[in-house]
Amino acid sequence: MSDALTNLPTFVADSEPWFRDTLRTLVEQPTISPGVTDPSAILAGVEVARAVMGEAGAEVEIVPSGGTPAVIGRFGHPAPKARIVIYNHFDVQPATAANWDQEDPFRFEVRPDPEREFLYLGRGTTDDKGPALCALRAAEWITRHELPIEVVLLWETEEEIGSPNFSDILRARKDLLAGDAVIVSDTIWPSAGHPAISTGLRGGLLASLRLRTAAKETHSGLTGGVARNPLRELASLATAIGNAEFWKLNAIAPPQVEVESYLRTGFDADYFRECHQLERLETDVPLEMMLRMWARPTYEIHGLVGGYTGAGIKSTVPGEGELKISFRLVPGQNPKELLMALAEFATSYNPAVEVEGLGSFDPYQGPITGPVHEAIVHGMTEGFGKRPALVREGGSIGAVPQMARELGVPIHFMPLSLPEHGYHAPNERFDWRQAKGGIASYVHAFAQLARG
């Protein structure tokens, strides 16, 4: 095993042209989530993904679902000591050229960089095609060297719309996917200077609160002071929800050992602010920021819809309005129970309000012990030169609790992206420094598992 690893640095260094060309091939497939556009681009991209996996040596199959299919690539071994499934997603967020420095977000570009070596620009580079290729290249390496481990790559195509049909795929191929563990590579380090392993995800609840008070808008000079204003009432309700306690109940606080690990991440408030282009923060105390984003429930308002929104002002009282909100949940909280609590609170506050749930995700807390976890820690330590800190992820991945439930195996995480890479944002990018560290991390993790 150690003899095989001696050529790994050369293999990784020599992989840059392959990584660049293959990432170009994947990024220039505009695989926008099927909930936003026609699925034909996804279906065309799936065929490209099939070819990419096949060229790397995988046994590839396309698994259909009630929506768009998944691509599964198997790197087998006759007597494996472990079977590990690596989950990534192949669909991407929409991108509008007007918000990007690039003329076309789906036209892949490469730029030299003194710190990151090469920047790879384009929609999908970091979320999630670049990290997926790191796992693919590592799987190709372990197959070449005949390490006794089976690696199965699972590329989903509906993650960006909440994975509504993903259970179809899990049930159809449970015999292949229910191995020793799943590793997800779709999360982010808190800072560029220190590797981190996500240990859990927050859940989520999306909701719409609607209020109708009239059949039409009316002139405020004729009805103002008598007509109920739905936007004012919804704004008042929005504030009341923020001050309430019902959405904070049952949240399990992280253990002290985990909080201490947060402090080792090198989290920098100024770096965070700059990456996300935030001009104002609710707090700039690093530990408090991390606790709020990763380990506590949150409530956000995404839109208050209704009335006149054109230039200037139109002095009417709107007849209806809609408040769009969401909650992020932590272990111990249940989105279905929260929706019932929200409806009870809202209708108690204002009986005319109608509450509708628009989707939910369960929170997930992964294991921080065991051979797969230790292999990931070892792999990232070797790949990036520092022992990773343990953190949580503030966002949600709908596929993760589905995999835990349907496959009955632990879900682990190996983050490779950075805040500056622009998840869901304009000017998305990945970089070679993270990619080569990711390839090496996967190889070392696989090699440790192959030792048994």
TrEMBL record:
It comes from the Bacteria. The keyword Nucleotide-binding does not apply. It holds the Pfam family M20_dimer. One of its GO terms (biological process) is proteolysis. One of its GO terms (molecular function) is peptidase activity. Keywords: Hydrolase, Metal-binding, Protease. Residues 206-351 form the Peptidase M20 dimerisation domain. SUPFAM superfamilies: Zn-dependent exopeptidases. PANTHER family: BETA-ALA-HIS DIPEPTIDASE (PTHR43270), DI- AND TRIPEPTIDASE DUG2-RELATED (PTHR43270:SF8). This is Peptidase M20 dimerisation domain-containing protein.
